[in-house]
Fold:
Amino acid sequence: MASLVRLLGDLDLAEEVAQDAVAVALDRWPRDGVPDRPGAWLLTTARHRAYDRLRRDRTFAAKRALLEQEVALGPEAMDTSAIPDDRLRLFFTCCHPALNPAARVALTLRALAGLDTAEIARAFLVSESTVAQRLVRAKRKIRDAGIPYRVPSAAELPARLPSVLAVVYLVFTEGYLATGGTALTRPALSTEAIRLARVLHRLLPAEPEVTGLLGLLLLTEARRPARTDGAGRLVTLDEQDRSRWDRDLVGEGHDLVVAALRRPPAGPYTLQAAIAVAHADARTAADTDWGLVVALYDALGRVAPSPVVELNRAVAVGMADGPAAGLAALQPVRLPGSHLLPAARADLLRRLGRTGEAAAAYDAALELVRNRVERDYLRRRRDELPPRPTRPPVIRSEPAAPGAAPSLWITGEGDPTDPPVALGRPPARGPH
Amino acid sequence: MHYAVLIYEDESTYATVSEHDGEQMHKEYAEYTQLLIDAGVMRGGEHLQPVSSATSIRGGAAGAEQLVTDGPFAETREQLGGFYIIDCADLDAALHWAKLCPAARTGTVEVRPVVANN
Structure:
């Protein structure tokens, strides 16, 4: 598919001829047998189809010349060595900053993950026609505005890479939400995101933020088995049975983060991944090196400042130096309209034994929370408030997503009741 | 491919600009124009008089009289003050040149592809 797009410079045409080729294959292969190299066969067939179509269209004369050349070269010329480059080009086109963020996500899922319109619509809880329209508009813009199919030069890369990483990250967080035990169980977007991150890492092995992002996704994914209990209820980080974390993923993520950290300065994804490593390295929540976590949030706040990072830092301070210090660190944080701030305050107050104030803060959080899973959780906490201050501490310090999907990180759960396409802005800024 | 680089800036800042700053700005645009010429991408461009000089004509429903009014098409915080037409291979190249426009630092620059005439 990526090869076809590169060749034709037209996503629509590439999609059509690819579908044609598959239809021909379905017709012929059962009869004639599957060819030795099915992929190359499909590509050749698709190119011939494209050639037929373009022949009917004079405005495509230049493209036709190119295609004739490629057809003349035969299937050997289309060997797999060319494909990774094509995919990388497609990544940068689909995630071009000239496209709106929602369109970038939809295009990437369509063109690089191979999801169809219905699957993308289900994943983002929007109608199929919305997704279809988004794709049509984006493809039209690519064509009309002349957005190129090419990998940015080394000089451009630092400015262009963050938007690619943001799309992969966003797909992951939506997937993390999608598999949260609600109606949103398909498609497994986080799996797709990890696959995309792996492809990107293979294509750009020397980019530390790509390495860091893949590490972050793997370390977060590793916790999935422990994130819900038998009844499908949310289990927060402090209460998770860490023996249920996927140790293979943790190990792989760990190595990636170490590799990314060896090439400073660490970017926002690498730092978030490093925080995840700090959690993964601790056998229990109490064993966590909270001083290290605070230091990592400090660094994250410097490269990607956001109120959510400050809030998470304050929660970590509350673990490292006690709830009073955490409360002081929380003092300057402003996060209007979000339940996260009162929820964090409530926890710290509860641990300080200031039960009355804690209950009020829980109430304030409950008034703002829109996520069913989180609401249940907060209500449970409030109702469990003791008459006397003898509760064990609650740790809620998932890596903060600078500027996006904060609820996801704070309690490890997204908002299944939300209009889910909060794609207004990319979640993280790049290191430059 | 031809792209229009549309320059939007807050005109009110010009009204109060010092003579020195005005000259400086003039110089910057002259340099930018020369840069586009030297790069071989320059295809045209104009500096427009302020919107206070603008007159708009609005066509109404069929048969209705055209309405001539004083002022620009729309009252906005930033106004169209000029444009360049540049010839570039693709949007990335066009954005590269547009980013170098003096207005891209102080105001807003909009890049629009020009419809090809063939």
Notes: Helices of chain B lie at 11-15, 19-38, 91-99, 103-106.
